[in-house]
Amino acid sequence: MIKIENLKASIDDKDILKGINLDIPAGEVHVIMGRNGSGKSTLANVIAGNETYEVDGGNITMEDTDITEMSIENRALEGIFLCFQYPVAIPGVSMAYFLRSALNAHRKYQGKEEMDALEFLNKAKAILSELGLDDSFLKRSINDGFSGGEKKKSEILQLLTIDPKLAVLDETDSGLDVDALRTVAKGVNKFKNENNSVLIITHYQRLLDYIKPDVVHLMIDGQIVKTGDMSLVEKVEKDGYSWLEK
Amino acid sequence: MIDTLKKTSLEFFHKQGYPNKKLENWKFTSSKNFKKFSKKEISDISIANISTDETTLLFINGKLCLNTFKNFRYRDNIEINELANIEEKAILTFSDTFMNDAMFNLGMSEFDGGHYIKFKKQMNVEDPIKIVNLFQNDTSDRRIVSFNIFHFEEGSQISIIEKDINEGAPSFNLKMNKFICDNASNLNFAKYVEGKSDCHLLSYSYYKVRKDVCINMDSMNKDAIFSKEFIEIDLNNTGSDAKVNILNLVKDEQHLDNNILINHNAEHCTSFQHVRNILDNKSSAVFNGKVIVAEGAQQTDSNQSNKNLLLSLNSTAFSNPQLEIYADDVSCGHGSTTGALDENSIFYLRARGIDQSSAQKMLIKAFAKEVIDEFSLSSVQDISEIALDRWIDG
Ligand SMILES: Nc1ncnc2c1ncn2[C@@H]1O[C@H](COP(=O)(O)OP(=O)(O)OP(=O)(O)O)[C@@H](O)[C@H]1O
Ligand SMILES: [Mg+2]
To answer: What is the pTM of this model?
Structure first.
């Protein structure tokens, strides 16, 4: 699905990603764990095309298309979806208007007919109820005054509405109570199928009790230093990261 | 009475001359721009292409058109007098701030044919009254001065939508309006300008507010090439609320200035100023807002907010919210922000597949809508949203 080769990125001349290699085939769930500040969110943002970061080398390929130079919106339309660690509040733009615009941008790109307001509402309502959110959620401004949990659920609502090819979840499990965590996990499992991929960035094992990862990567100082299976997560939970440093 | 007033005003103006930049109220808006205009005789006026209905009061170059008044639905509830017949000085005078402003005195010395329009006690209109100000002009560099007084008697509940239409050669419209709001009156006053115009505008609106009054003043400006609007509200008795919501859309080399002064002279009043400017190209905007809470005006609740959205590096916003408080038991807030569209918000929207230009438009609209949503009349909200869309696309 997505293939990242020797990716280097910096901000204000400070090197953050120092040669990342990552290959996530369709149908797989990968996990990245790593210390605070090791560059996980940077990687997620560079995949999504955030122009604040300078890409200094390497490339990103999405199903054989090189997207390294592609605009933010075109990557999204090609199937990349980032669940933000800190979703921004946008007062004055309703969730309904935003979500329908986003969905229709995708549908247009795929050569499908745009969805009218009613059709969209029915689709959105079904997802809302699965996430335990009230219909009135759609009337609120994007992330404006949302609680921490609501923000994360809002990201999952968008994920399920847009139904992309690759979901990058940047600490979507942080700050959630036990029930909300279960709801979010349920949402991700609903999204997941053999034709799409998931990249989970997390600090904890708890989300992975619900979503079984195929591959686990450990990141230190802008590089992936170890790749393995679920046992790596257990080791990190027990011993932290210092054993990875020579 | 009027003649004495005109005479002293002219003397005042001759003595002071055009205001200079050292004056606080004229710091960021140069009165030089008004100098090329002068009073000129007005030739015959055709009103052929203005359709009015029975809820419209038509003013042509500032003068009430009595012909349309004959068909006015509420004429039995309205009393009209020519200003020339008013002998009571208190009715004609404005605030000290205005009476000491040179441009205001120029206007006072020069208007003719204004009216004193009284909305009678308990008058209640369902549909908003429309005031159409038609400025029709065939000569360049003409100054058109108007002066009208609107008096809302006790318990009246009136909504007014004022629309300026400019036709012909660009003029300099100098408008002076006084609003007297008696006890328990309720006034929604919304205004906007229709059509592209290269007009200069200088307006003085003075609200004299008695007890338990509620005023909403909403306006959206986008067309004047150069405009300065003074609003002064005197809350002289207890229990009144005044809300001012203004949205300015400026581009090219437009310059817009809002100068608002609210005087809390009595207890238990609230006031709210919300001014947002969206600036593109080389345009500039000024917000000069001031609230003065007098000694003894306890339990005052007041808020001023000015937000400026800069769409171009060459646009400029001057913001000067001020607060003077001489009472101790009050709650007063004021704030001002100026900045470009938020990059993180644009990234967020684009990361969901929305193209850059649509994302920017969405954010501009959201910024504007926060004021439009405060407008008291839904029809004005609708008109404003359509005008906003056109402006953004245009
Ligand atoms: N916009 C930015 N401006 C300046 N520095 C940045 C910016 N974004 C990231 N950095 C820096 O890059 C480094 C990596 O940050 P990043 O957010 O990618 O870490 P992370 O692995 O996601 O950490 P966490 O686990 O705390 O979320 C940090 O040193 C951070 O300060
Ligand atoms: Mg992070």
So the answer is: 0.92
